[in-house]
Amino acid sequence: MMERWQQLVQFLKEVRTELKKVSWPARKEVVGSTVVVIVSVFILSFFLGAIDITLQKLLTFVVR
């Protein structure tokens, strides 16, 4: 049990060391990327919604 605890402590120390090496993006970059993702999702959802409505109407026309 003690060996497992020591392995966990060692792992967490290594994680902390690696996180110090990470190059974190600036707040401006994060906000910009988030806006791009949100706008892209909205555009794609409207596009797929339009295709869905079009195919639904087409299928209704063909079935009748």
Write up what this structure looks like.
It is a single chain. The chain is mainly α and 64 residues long. It has one domain. It is built from two helices and no strands. It has helices at residues 2-21, 27-63. The mean pLDDT is 95.
Structural class: mainly alpha
The amount of beta strand, in percent, is: under 5%
Tally of helical segments: 2
Compute the gyration radius: what is it? 25 Å
Low-pLDDT runs of 5+ residues are none
Helix content: over 70%
Roughly what is the average pLDDT, rounded to an integer?
A: 95
Q: What overall form do the CA principal axes indicate?
A: elongated
Oligomer: single chain
Q: Give the biggest sheet.
A: none
Q: What are the secondary-structure elements, in order, as H or E? A: HH
Number of strands: 0
Q: CA-to-CA gap between the ends?
A: 71 Å
Give the total of domains: 1
